[in-house]
Design goal:
This protein is of the alpha+beta class. It has a single domain, classed as Beta Barrel (Hypothetical Protein Pfu-838710-001). It contains four helices and nine strands; from the N terminus they run E-E-E-E-E-H-E-E-E-H-E-H-H. Strands 1-5-4-3-2-6-7-8 form an eight-stranded antiparallel beta barrel. A hairpin with a 2-residue loop joins strand 3 and strand 4. The longest helix is centred in the C-terminal third of the chain and has 14 residues.
């Protein structure tokens, strides 16, 4: 799928109640390249605690912070395994919860684990830039970090352990 991604990123002040009631995905992703972004992702989907699906996805993203072109293609096991050998940097592992918001918007709440345990970021995709610029999130959603590239997964993938520690400290001091 080739489309324009219009997305804002936020730190989260507090987690919504009953997270396990929402559809969620366990995601592991790695980067073949970060400029342009070429990412592979394994996404396991759960509902009510049961695995209901798996997808392997190749994604290519263009330049931009709020808006950028995105191309996604579902790939097979063989292609995923081949591309996995080309991944460099940190593998990002997280659980993503899909939380409906008003105006048919969706909060994708990412709770990271592994190297990034403690990092929690929310992403909201918008149909157009005007709506994105006017949007006021619910109070449990904290500071916007859309234009802070340190919170972009492609940048996270290339961080050192020291950089990760600094980022987690910064995030905890902002909430």
């Amino acid at each position: 799928m080739n489309n324009m991604e219009i997305e804002k990123k936020y730190l989260i002040n507090r987690l919504p109640d009953k997270l396990d009631d929402y559809v969620h995905h366990h995601i592991e992703q790695g980067y073949v390249c970060t400029h342009p972004v070429i990412r592979i992702r394994k996404k396991l989907t759960y509902k009510s605690g049961s695995l209901i699906g798996q997808k392997l996805i190749l994604t290519i993203k263009g330049d931009g912070m709020l808006s950028r072109r995105e191309f996604e293609l579902e790939i097979d096991d063989s292609s995923f395994d081949c591309l996995s050998q080309k991944v460099s940097g940190n593998i990002i592992s997280k659980n993503r919860y899909e939380i409906p918001l008003e105006n048919n918007l969706m909060l994708e709440l990412d709770i990271f684990d592994g190297l990034f345990k403690g990092l929690i970021i929310g992403e909201i995709e918008f149909p157009d830039e005007e709506m994105a610029k006017k949007y006021n999130p619910p109070d449990y959603i904290g500071r916007e970090v859309t234009f802070d590239e340190r919170f972009h997964n492609s940048i996270l993938s290339s961080m050192s352990e020291s950089d990760i520690s600094d980022l987690l400290t910064l995030m905890n001091n902002c909430n």
